[in-house]
Fold each of these.
Amino acid sequence: MSGLELLVPGGTGQLGRDLAALAGPGLGVTAPGSADLDVTRPGAVIEAVTALSDRAAAAGAQPVVINAAAYTAVDKAETEEARAFAINADGPRVLAAACSSRRVPLIHVSTDYVFSGEASAPYEPDDALGPRTAYGRTKAAGEDAVLGSGASAWVVRTAWVYGKHGTNFLKTMTTLESTRDTLSVVDDQRGTPTWSADLAAALVELAGMIAAGNGPATRVLHCTGAGETTWYGFAQAIFRHLGADPARISPCRTEDFPRPAPRPAYSVLSTKSWQGAGLTPPRPWDEALAAYFKA
Ligand SMILES: NC(=O)C1=CN([C@@H]2O[C@H](COP(=O)(O)OP(=O)(O)OC[C@H]3O[C@@H](n4cnc5c(N)ncnc54)[C@H](O)[C@@H]3O)[C@@H](O)[C@H]2O)C=CC1
């Protein structure tokens, strides 16, 4: 296969930086931050997608856009829904329109928050949406915009992302381990931790498949680590890797930590669609966590 040339809006975020880190022979990655490419500005977006097309043509590579740009402040979105909507729904619409006009495929990243979180078995991609938060509503609108755009586009939902860059649960636990003797972590929300570096590699695999003309027939896919746990279970695993005693953490309930945006009780996403499309099955979340600490 010829090489891949990627444009990654949101390139300085947690996922964006791990995508940028994969650049190498046969994989060009341009990963602008929001100051260099604001996805809500149609003129700038069309210019960036056109430049991507030109770069790919010059390199004899296939262009693909992976949208890692998002408004991800879940609680703040409750009082800033219009701003979140502009970035999470209008932004993907603008990107998809530019991709459609330049015939460039688009992979758009979405979230478990588009579901209600009331299920008791892993969510499949075509399960009914029912976002309970402003963030979830804006992300669901972004999915609709992309899928209804006429662009050659795929939506990849993920959940519980942690990585080297940015703010995330793993970083918070690491700080608390060194500043607190004991702590409480919720044990009644289930999901699957996903290492952003694994997600980045998985998205590049999908981009390669699309560029080769074998894009999955299913337009919505789920990609997270394999297995499931609770935030308490995840916190205990993090403590073990830090060489700290996990007994310092006690389990508590969601109602003990009221938040402006309600948290989903059940966020496990089935990755059958991912494997069904012939993509590499995700590794178990605890194996990925061990690899994160080793790296
Ligand atoms: N972090 C998590 O736990 C989860 C994340 N996701 C999704 O994964 C994707 C990546 O998330 P992260 O990298 O973790 O988030 P992040 O917040 O680290 O990165 C998002 C980036 O988008 C940029 N951005 C904001 N407004 C922009 C605009 N108008 N134009 C261009 N860029 C803009 C931000 O500056 C930031 O660098 C997002 O679509 C998010 O909704 C899904 C599930 C869980």
Amino acid sequence: MAERGRVQRARRLVVKIGSALLTDDGRGLDVTALAGWVDQLTALIRDDIEVVLVSSGSVAEGMSRLGWRERPQHLHELQAAAAVGQMGLVQTWEAQFKRHGLHSAQILLTHDDLSDRKRYLNARSTLRTLLDLGVIPIVNENDTVVTDEIRFGDNDTLGALVANLVEADGLVILTDQDGLFDRDPRKHADATLVDERLASDAGLDAMAAGGAGMLGRGGMQTKVRAARLAARSGAFTVIVGGRLEQVITRLRAGESLGTLLLPEQGRIAARKQWLASHLKTRGQLVLDDGAVRVLCQGGRSLLPVGVRSVTGQFRRGEMVSCADEFGREVARGLVNYDADEARAIAGRSSDRIAEVLGYVSDEEMIHRDNLVIV
Ligand SMILES: Nc1ncnc2c1ncn2[C@@H]1O[C@H](COP(=O)(O)OP(=O)(O)O)[C@@H](O)[C@H]1O
Ligand SMILES: N[C@@H](CCC(=O)OP(=O)(O)O)C(=O)O
């Protein structure tokens, strides 16, 4: 109960909606329900809360459009269904947000996009730019091209990774049950709803052991796992019934709906710990005194102008060490430019990056969120 204020205070949320909810249990896109969620999300956005939507439903909607009653066995059929269904999904989301004068954008990701450092930073910059522009990113797995080796597998995991990517305060998972119960409520009529736990609580696994619904992929197991992943960047997770009247608005008002799974540490501490665990550095940036001072005071990004020299070979997104003029390490961080580019823009002001490189991917050499002082 005590922690519900976190949901009220959140400034950036990832909201994931499952297949059964979106497609009215496989009968086809539930436009009325979708419109209801869009109305509530729009109210959040008007309140200056940034929202990224993770929408499942492409396979379920594709099956419904193609008149398939049973989930196909072959991967290429599933992928074909996803391709058909994704059209309907994005069209419907777009039309609904347009009613409120809001733009939306389709983002299809594969696991590779988030495991490759460079693509990770690109995905992150694009999502951030969309949020800055007031556009609602609508994310799904790129089902048409994924194979088993490169799939997230379920959108709960994808939702958590997106929450890590955009450093969301929280992940809200809308599903067809009112939340996480102590046992599968489809099989046990006396199951009781779990209100609040630490995401790391080992007792949650046994509760979530029942499988998924007909249309979903992961059931509660993937939702609990997603909550643990989200907790790694300090985000809370709410698992809640998407059919509850005004569910998003009521959560936002602090009402105790669904199950709240909490991280053990705050967002910034979690991120810094994650960064600090990257032991291997690929190169070194030697900073001038001004830059060293600014970084050590904390909370500031490293700009190219403060870099005197660059050693080593590294790529955008890799970890580099930052040292003062005497070679003493002062910080580490994920660098926004390849080594050759970093050399070319070192010592220059950010507004000259375009002139030197022909493009600007970021104004900072290392963004403050990706920097840890040592
Ligand atoms: N302990 C539990 N509490 C709630 N639901 C559970 C539990 N164990 C298993 N389930 C099942 O998980 C299903 C939701 O997961 P899933 O079908 O993957 O939905 P979604 O499409 O929303 O991701 C529920 O319909 C429920 O039957
Ligand atoms: N990318 C798939 C998502 C599958 C999935 O995870 O479904 P769900 O468990 O309902 O969130 C689709 O759009 O059908």
